[in-house]
User: Fold this.
Amino acid sequence: MKDAEGVQFLQWCLPHLQLRWPGYRKVRRQVYKRIQRRLQSLGLQSFADYRSYLEAHAEEWALLDTYCWIPISRFYRDKGVFQFLGQEVLPRLADRAQKESEGVLRCWSLGCASGEEPYTLVLLWKLSLESRFSNVPLAVLATDVDANAIARAQQACYPPGSLRDLPDSWRTQGFDETPEGFSLKREFRDPVTFRTQDIRKSVPEDTFHLILCRYMVFTYFDEGLQERMVRRLVERMRTGGALVIGNRETLPKGDFGLTPWAEKWGVFERIAQSA
Assistant:
């Protein structure tokens, strides 16, 4: 199919899903491939045929929505972000957690795909910070809308390319090399709990010191949905906690109770709300 036809189709359908075209320019061909498989299963020939099908079958929109979730993930993605988390953010949050009655450092990785991001957080904590905060356990909740991605994350076995950005010492200490790939050692899996969840429909009941929400909400969602989602995220943050978005993303305009911590790295702090 011609790219122009695909672009026209996405520009038509994405607003119906509260998604925005600019976020899909670079990944549009991955969406095309998914839709093409669906067309073949339906016996349709073109995007125009699929548009007509969508207009006649309202239930198909939910399936199309799943084709528009494009996971792009690897360990230690944007290493400067994780270096800043290790040097500045996590030590301060761990100090805060020490003073709380529960004493657990709670983190949420949103849109976790195959688990690379939450596991990177655990590697960072255990190999760089845990010795300084031995009385503060780390607990990471990792959520994604794609149940298949969650299943892959729970297997925690990765091809070499997924680990290419990791420091060599982390790769050696954190993984066992097997015929199937690099298998994450059990001690780095245990702090992570995986859950299939769509933030548009529900959020965890816990509150968190750190929320990682990178390259999903603020890339793909339209502005109105972004505003609603950032308010949901802030509600799940503890005062003084950190929200991390993609370092090439921006928050929607508005007063959300956040102040820049390090805008270069997409890190924001939740401030206390005045009475």
About this structure: Residues 79-99 form the longest helix (21 residues). Strands lie at 105-110, 138-144, 157-158, 175-178, 181-184, 192-196, 208-213, 237-244, 258-262, 267-270. The chain has a mean pLDDT of 94. DSSP finds eleven helices and ten strands in the chain.
